[in-house]
Design brief:
The protein is of the alpha+beta class. It has helices at about 1-5, 30-40, 70-75, 95-110, and strands spanning about 5-15, 20-25, 55-60, 65, 85-90. A 5-stranded mixed β-sheet has the order 2-1-5-3-4. One of its GO terms (cellular component) is plasma membrane.
Length: about 120
C-alpha cells in the first residue's frame, strides 16, 4: 500500500484523444520531468510535436501545472483513485516564432501611408 503513496500511475491524454502511458512516476518528480518524459515518448507520426518542454502544458484537475511543482503537490483528490491511473491532459503551445511573425506582419498590413506635397 505504501507503493501507491510513493508513486502515481499517470497517463497523458493528447489533444487528438490518443494517450501516452500509463507510466509510474514518484510523487517527488517535478512537472518539468513529466514534460521531459512526454517529449521522449511523443508519437513520431504526430504533426504537432513539441520541440521543448516550454511548448507543453499539462492540465490536471482543471489546473495548469507549474514546472517547479512536484507530482505530489499537484495531485487532485477528485482525480486520485487509489491503485488507479490518473489522466492528465497535454496541450502543445504554438511555437513562439509563429506568434511573433503574426504580430509583426499584422501591423504592417494595416498601415496607411500618406504623403503631403
Amino acid at each position: 500500500m505504501s507503493g501507491v503513496q510513493d508513486s502515481l500511475e499517470i497517463k497523458f491524454r493528447l489533444i487528438d484523444g490518443s494517450d501516452i502511458g500509463p507510466k509510474s512516476f514518484p510523487v517527488a518528480a517535478s512537472v518539468a520531468s513529466l514534460k521531459e518524459s512526454i517529449l521522449s515518448q511523443w508519437p513520431k507520426e504526430k504533426n504537432n510535436a513539441p520541440r521543448t518542454v516550454k511548448d507543453l502544458k499539462i492540465i490536471s484537475g482543471g489546473k495548469i501545472l507549474e514546472n517547479n511543482k512536484t507530482v505530489g503537490e499537484c495531485r487532485s483528490p477528485l482525480c486520485d483513485v487509489p491503485g488507479g491511473v490518473t489522466t492528465m491532459h497535454v496541450v502543445v503551445s504554438q511555437p513562439p516564432q509563429q506568434k511573433e511573425m503574426k504580430v509583426k506582419s499584422d501591423p504592417k498590413q494595416q498601415k496607411c501611408v500618406c504623403v503631403i506635397l
